[in-house]
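Appendix C. Worked example: Dihydrolipoyl dehydrogenase
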Amino acid sequence: MVVGDVTTGTDVLVIGAGPAGYVAAIRAGQLDLDVTLVEKDAYGGTCLNYGCIPSKALITATDVAHEAATAEEMGIHADPAIDLGGMMDWKDGVVDQLTGGVEKLCKANQVTLLEGTARFADENTVRVSHSGEGQGSETLEFEHAVIATGSRPIEIPNFEYGDEPVLDSKQALALKSVPDSLVVVGAGYIGMELASVFAKLGTDVTALEMLDSILPGYDDDLKRPVKQRANDLGIDFEFGYTATEWHDRDDADGIRVVAEPAERAAADGGGAEAVEDERLELDTEKVLVAVGRQPVSDTLDLAEAGLQTDDRGFIETDSRARTTVDHIFAAGDVAGEPMLAHKGSAEGKVAAEVIAGEPAALDHQAMPAAVFTDPEIGTVGMTESEADDAGFETVTGQFPFRASGRALTTGNSDGFVKIVADDEDGYVLGASIVGSEASELIAELSLAIELGATLEDVASTVHTHPTLSEAVMEAAENALGHAIHTLNR
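Step 2, the predicted output written as structure tokens:
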């Protein structure tokens, strides 16, 4: 690939090197297609560089410190000294190892890597602008394209991320010192994960949420242990409020975050002056805005390729990751909910295989999701209410971790495993887990749904003792009415 004002060609153009894009590129390379992968920032995308991986690294590190400091019941007395700089260096090392691995894997699969920003000129051509003075741009013609440009944090009025005390998740994961206090705007999964991280580092954390509970979209029984643990960590919550502005404090260091009742803020566009006794004012050193993410689709000149987005900026695709333009595909966050890295990788793989003529398609029925709060949440398939609404006669089984020998030996016995199945034939329809290692345990039940397994299949599979995974087996047995280590319903 020659950089300059020239035109080159490729079989498959992939725009964006996150979990959707680099997987699409590598799989297309494995299928003997000529592939060019364009990335404007960093290989691995937001997930590897600024999201999934660095946040989980810090969650793990702060968990180690917190568990050591609170293990008196086990006869362990410790007061860990936290070196945030050292912690960040370790986190960055993990990130560098993974992003470097992505680049090596792409090259090993004969993927041409091109740094720059791609914009469509027409449905078979993009213009790639290279960053840096004098770098110029080039034209690239393609037979097929995969759009995998990901997502960015949503910015709310009066809280621009360029303002020093206002943080997005990327900036929060790169702090050089632990803030004494932090207001987290948004109690969804990103807000709750990072609120717990900073609380365990010793920060006074207040979570501000416009709705009436944490983790919108999750059942109350899953949220309850997470909320209780957050309370135990000292996290304060203010529900039903929308952050509307911030300003420097006149009498002290730090800032003051102003919030109004959510209904009033919504009615007034978030900017009207609130009644004084309804207004909430929170003094803090930093404010983290974590109200969700939006697709990066506005940088592509999609109309030039004959593409449109919906009113939220997502590109519509079918089960084969194909857009309304047959030879252009989309994968990952830009292709719509759920905005999950593993969903994006699966879509990227499907896109590459469809381009190569394979009979590939993606079934979202067995798409798991995880929240890395304390304790974790893992879900897959239908909830009980969703299955009922779909017309199934359901049966459920549940097993509490407090009855698990392995959970008790780890000191983490909050939570449970719940399985939802079709009462007539026993097929597993869905599952939800809240507890330690829920993100790992949900994989077994995802496989059960994918393979069309029944409660009897799961219950009759011998599980190693003592392990947390026995709780999955016992939940299936509970649904069948013959659990051994918990009372049957």
